[in-house]
Amino acid sequence: MISNKIKNGILGHINIPSDKSISHRSIIIPSISMGVSEINNLLMSDDVIHTLNAFKTLGVKIEKSNDKIIIYGKGLNSLKKPNKNIYLGNSGTSARLLTGLLASQTFETILEGDQSLSSRPMARIMDPLKLMGAEFKNVSGTLPLKIIGKKLNKSKIEIEIPSAQIKSGLILAALNTEGVSQIIEKNITRDHTENMLKSFGANINIEKNNNQTFIYINGKQELKSKNINVPSDLSSSAFFIIAALINHGSKINLNNININPSRDGVLKALEKMGAKIDIKNKRTVSGEIVADLQVEYSNLIGCELNADMAKFMIDEYPILSIAAAFAKGKSIFRGLKELKVKESDRLELIRLNLVNCGCDCEVVNDDLIIKPSEKYIPNNNKIRTDFDHRIAMSFAVMGSKVGNLIIDDGESINTSFPNFIEKFNNAGGNIL
């Protein structure tokens, strides 16, 4: 795909797809609950469809009725041994959450994924699960992974890596374990799993002390079905927000956006950069804080973000880097080690592609340093994505200012935002 300069800014009222993180959980949790749940506004992206298909393979009855997904849950131990390996495409969320859930079942399962997912580290979820007695057959620490389902033991586990996926996988394992398990989170991460489980009647107690979170899960408590309305995704919104901020004449409205305080770092970062973002009509929907956003073109300034910010916005750093490339002054984003083990080495791809666009950009240890150019003349207009959807969309936004950026893989966008190109063009973009 080719992203070209735009003339009149990004304009209008834009409907953003549903939250991907919550969509995954809106399949998983109703599937292990008692009763029928209706899911409204589920994101039908490639990643979420892989989770949906996984639970069908595990014996859960799931139907589509108009715009709703109906899930017939039968409880914590109702899943059935699959008759084939479970393929998860490029979905790291599916892989890590299912690893935790299936570790406490009574059957063996093999999880597999595409080339990208098969290169991502799984030991970070396997190792803490082993402390609960989980058993795996895997030498490489990556997919494919054979899970030997068995009865697990309550445990006290400290999580050093700031990852909601690891935390959620452990919580799902503890749900099916006798007694009270304790999970200590050294760095706060998004809490969608805890929020949803509480709304389904799970016996979970949460205490916060300084920067740590203590989560107590009373296992073997049956969950009760509940209908879910999935809010719109802040990560997906960020591409339109930043496209509007950097293009003259832009003004957009985005409704029903999830602004959960455990993942709203991109809004805080953009506020620090001088962005004109008006947050209106805050309310709670299905246990999540949502709001309407009004965004218009802004004269951004560079900023420095410390490493603590990464846990609130790790997925948004690729697109935030585009904002920094058009800000006045240098930006330094610290502590981005986790970007190296996403769908790609995002830290290196941000650096490489910004340099190719003519930006002075470097990585020092795990810090990203961006020094904007007054005028961008690409050294190489071919954008390398390594099949990473967020890299592809971020540099599509860059192309709206620089022009004629050739992005090597547009299909990867279907992972999280299937109709991104259509929506971007309808708002004033120029992607071919």
Question: Could you explain the architecture of this structure?
Answer:
The chain has 432 residues and is an alpha/beta fold. The protein folds into two domains: 2-17 and 231-426, Enolpyruvate transferase domain (UDP-n-acetylglucosamine1-carboxyvinyl-transferase, Chain), CATH 3.65.10.10; 20-229, Enolpyruvate transferase domain (UDP-n-acetylglucosamine1-carboxyvinyl-transferase, Chain, Alpha-beta prism), CATH 3.65.10.10. The chain has helices at residues 20-31, 46-57, 92-103, 123-130, 164-175, 192-199, 234-246, 265-272, 310-313, 317-325, 346-356, 389-402, 420-426, and strands spanning 2-3, 11-14, 33-40, 61-65, 68-74, 86-87, 108-112, 135-137, 145-148, 156-159, 180-185, 204-209, 212-218, 223-224, 228-229, 251-258, 276-285, 288-296, 304-305, 331-333, 360-364, 367-371, 382-383, 405-407. Strands 3, 4, 5, 14 and 15 form a five-stranded mixed beta sheet that branches. Strands 2-16-18-17 form a four-stranded mixed beta sheet. Strands 6-7-9-8 form a four-stranded mixed beta sheet. The longest helix is centred in the last third of the chain and has 14 residues, at 389-402. It is globular and about 60 Å long.
How would the blueprint of this fold be written?
Elements lengths: L1 E2 L7 E4 L5 H12 L1 E8 L5 H12 L3 E5 L2 E7 L11 E2 L4 H12 L4 E5 L10 H8 L4 E3 L7 E4 L7 E4 L4 H12 L4 E6 L6 H8 L4 E6 L2 E7 L4 E2 L3 E2 L4 H13 L4 E8 L6 H8 L3 E10 L2 E9 L7 E2 L4 H4 L3 H9 L5 E3 L12 H11 L3 E5 L2 E5 L10 E2 L5 H14 L2 E3 L12 H7 L6
Parallel strand pairs: 2-16, 3-14, 3-15, 6-7, 10-11, 19-20, 23-24
Antiparallel strand pairs: 1-24, 3-5, 4-5, 7-9, 8-9, 11-13, 12-13, 16-18, 17-18, 20-22, 21-22
Helix pairs in contact: 1-2, 1-6, 3-5, 4-5, 7-10, 7-12, 10-11, 10-12
